[in-house]
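pls design
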């Protein structure tokens, strides 16, 4: 009986240690300034926030940069896994456990300023010819759901901007947060484009898989609240985006 109790105690202790030492797998994509790869490492505003949360909670976390579709799918299926930065939508609500928001962006349509295009409403945009944007983006889903039949799905933001630059499309749709980096990657500047009809405001989160221990997710939520209270969130955020709208509370 004593031996059995000892073995049971050892097994329980082993399970506890495994739970404490489990490494979280945080997945992200190449989407500056929130997250991107450079010199063999992963950097960005959201990356800095995730690393700060990992350190403050004591939860070991490995960050890997993957194609968005793969990262998103893995984060729905695997325990101790999350994808960031992810737009929280009603359609996605039940698929993840959410920590955030980390940042907020506004999506508009953009054209080359030299074309001097004018749009008064969304219907005119929908009838304006091909509109390029990555097919895996939430924006693509949103516009498709609104009945846009002129969407030209591409594989990445650089292709989207390149098509705009060379006149293959006259409009793209993207967020203010990423606009400068996306344009620069294809050889354009912000002063060469014109914004039209801001139509969507998106809050970005860390999305943990349903299989991840809820206690871990709660710990991250609480620590993010503390970061807002002690000013460390603002310090990191303003280092990357000094003039952007900053989230003021977690949800």
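designed seq:
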């Amino acid at each position: 009986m004593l031996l059995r109790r000892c073995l049971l105690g050892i097994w329980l202790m082993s399970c506890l240690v495994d739970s404490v030492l489990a490494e979280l797998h945080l997945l992200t994509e190449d989407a500056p300034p929130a997250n991107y790869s450079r010199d063999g490492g992963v950097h960005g505003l959201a990356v800095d926030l995730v690393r700060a949360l990992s350190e403050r909670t004591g939860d070991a976390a490995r960050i890997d940069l993957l194609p968005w579709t793969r990262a998103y799918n893995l984060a729905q299926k695997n325990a101790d896994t999350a994808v960031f930065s992810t737009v929280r939508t009603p359609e996605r609500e039940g698929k993840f456990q959410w920590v955030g928001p980390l940042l907020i962006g506004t999506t508009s349509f953009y054209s080359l300023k030299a074309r001097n295009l004018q749009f008064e409403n969304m219907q005119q945009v929908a009838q304006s010819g091909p509109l390029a944007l990555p097919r895996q983006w939430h924006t693509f889903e949103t516009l498709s759901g609104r009945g846009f039949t002129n969407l030209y799905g591409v594989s990445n933001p650089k292709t989207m901007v390149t098509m705009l630059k060379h006149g293959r499309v006259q409009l793209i749709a993207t967020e203010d947060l990423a606009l400068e980096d996306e344009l620069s990657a294809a050889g354009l500047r912000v002063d060469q484009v014109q914004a039209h009809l801001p139509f969507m405001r998106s809050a970005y989160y860390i999305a943990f898989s349903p299989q991840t221990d809820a206690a871990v997710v709660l710990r991250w939520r609480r620590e993010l609240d503390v970061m807002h209270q002690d000013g460390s969130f603002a310090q990191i955020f303003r280092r990357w985006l000094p003039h952007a709208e900053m989230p003021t509370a977690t949800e």
